[in-house]
């Protein structure tokens, strides 16, 4: 019996994507590589970092699959009293500014003054804490990836970014070109923190402005290949959909605006996929056409984005519990303190466990329903 084909989409969220790392670790411990065929992985910003580290481990056949991912996050986390003090100063300063309690200079991240300030603040610190590019290059051999060339085989990696000058939604896809460190840096380039990343004559900003994360592309044969169309798309979601109270304070408004911006493209993509599923369920395509794209039926996408709870392709997404979301704020996305990172990793593991249990129940209930229907027909 063929394994179900799955694609994993990782939403961005800065340091809060440590939650994603924990979720991916638990999925790997649950043997997703043995029980499922992982045909594609996508990510944006911090989700792009997690997606690339997992993809690289898959491509190298490493065990455990999650080892490289967790080593990255361990090194990225503040260590020792000095790093924790620097981290607290940065986070608390941004929190005071966003709360309207401290004035700030509007400096470009490309300005010499800003670069000098960051250099002074991190000078003499551990490279894993002060050099993001170097940290990526420590855990991923991009020269090795370049030697592979474009790799059409599974899993396919898709990273999202935004072209600053053209406004185009950019996708860096491993089946079309070797993944470079600049692709990840572009996906992570938050405009008020990092300068735009130059790639082949184009400038790119954070994938928050494009696809957060790329989802539709996971079902496009031109990107993943006809043989890698997933049966299910598993989403690891960072930005909460709902909020209990209307934001009033400046920091709350900034936080909610960031959440809404981070979800807009995601909801649009899921809406498009839902329409495709509706067409599939209505028999709008000829069998020979579906066979050409290896489509046997609707693609499973997260249930929380649909109005009809009876549709057979509903499964839960891996999402932060509401009580954790209520404790987080915008400034938490730059918080690399060990308490914050370790808590998010642990919560990601718990959420993935819940996801797998719910999925197993959904599949069992669907099989039982199909069996009863077949029995009634006979």
Describe the protein in words.
The chain is α/β, with parallel strands linked by helices and 378 residues long. It is 48% helix and 12% strand. It contains 15 helices and ten strands. It has helices at residues 18-29, 32-35, 46-60, 67-76, 80-98, 112-122, 127-130, 132-139, 142-148, 181-187, 221-224, 250-281, 287-292, 322-325, 338-377, and strands spanning 5-10, 37-44, 156-163, 169-173, 197-199, 202-205, 232-237, 301-302, 314-315, 318-319. The strands form two sheets. Strands 1, 2, 3, 4, 5, 6, 7 and 10 form an eight-stranded mixed sheet that branches. The longest helix has 40 residues, at 338-377. The chain is globular, with a radius of gyration of 21 Å. The two termini are 24 Å apart. Mean pLDDT is 84; it is low at 304-315.
Strand elements, count: 10
Order of helices and strands: EHHEHHHHHHHEEHEEHEHHEEEHH
Number of helices: 15
Structural class: alpha/beta
Query: Globular, elongated, flat, extended or rod-shaped: what is the shape?
Result: globular
List the keywords.
alpha/beta, two-stranded parallel ribbon, 15 helices, 10 strands, globular
Brief overview, please?
The chain is α/β, with parallel strands linked by helices and 378 residues long. It has helices at 18-29, 32-35, 46-60, 67-76, 80-98, 112-122, 127-130, 132-139, 142-148, 181-187, 221-224, 250-281, 287-292, 322-325, 338-377, and strands at residues 5-10, 37-44, 156-163, 169-173, 197-199, 202-205, 232-237, 301-302, 314-315, 318-319. Strands 1, 2, 3, 4, 5, 6, 7 and 10 form an eight-stranded mixed beta sheet that branches. A two-stranded parallel sheet has the order 8-9.
């Amino acid at each position: 019996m063929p394994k179900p084909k799955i694609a994993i989409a990782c939403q961005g969220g800065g340091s809060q994507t440590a939650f994603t790392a924990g979720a991916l670790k638990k999925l790997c411990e649950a043997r997703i590589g043995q029980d499922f065929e992982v045909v594609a992985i996508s990510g944006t910003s911090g989700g792009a970092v997690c997606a690339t580290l997992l993809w690289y481990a898959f491509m190298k056949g490493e065990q455990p699959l999650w080892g490289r991912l967790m080593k990255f996050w361990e090194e990225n986390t503040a260590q020792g009293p000095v790093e924790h003090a620097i981290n607290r100063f940065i986070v608390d300063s941004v929190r005071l500014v966003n709360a309207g309690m401290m004035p700030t200079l509007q400096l470009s991240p490309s300005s010499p003054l800003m670069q000098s300030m960051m250099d002074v603040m991190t000078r003499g610190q551990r490279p894993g804490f002060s050099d993001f590019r170097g940290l990526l290059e420590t855990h991923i051999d991009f020269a090795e990836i370049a030697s592979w060339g474009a790799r059409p085989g599974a899993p396919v990696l898709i990273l999202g970014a935004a072209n600053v000058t053209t406004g185009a939604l950019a996708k860096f896809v491993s089946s079309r070109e070797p993944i470079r460190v600049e692709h990840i840096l572009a996906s992570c380039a938050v405009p008020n923190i990092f300068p735009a990343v130059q790639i082949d004559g184009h400038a790119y900003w954070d994938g928050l402005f494009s696809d957060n994360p790329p989802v539709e592309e996971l079902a496009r044969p031109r990107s993943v290949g006809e043989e890698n169309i997933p049966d299910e798309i598993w989403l690891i979601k960072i930005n909460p959909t709902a909020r209990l109270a209307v934001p009033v304070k400046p920091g709350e408004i900034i936080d909610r605006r960031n959440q809404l911006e981070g979800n807009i493209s995601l909801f649009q993509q899921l809406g498009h996929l839902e329409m495709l599923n509706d067409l599939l369920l209505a028999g709008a395509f000829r069998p020979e056409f579906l066979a050409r794209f290896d489509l046997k039926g609707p693609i499973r996408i997260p249930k929380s984005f649909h109005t009809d709870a009876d549709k057979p392709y509903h499964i839960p997404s891996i999402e932060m519990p509401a009580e954790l979301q209520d404790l987080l704020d915008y400034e938490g996305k730059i918080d690399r303190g060990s308490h914050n990172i370790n808590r998010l990793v642990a919560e990601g593991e718990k959420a993935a466990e819940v996801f797998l249990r719910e999925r197993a129940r959904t599949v069992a209930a669907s099989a039982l329903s199909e069996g009863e229907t077949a029995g009634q027909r006979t």
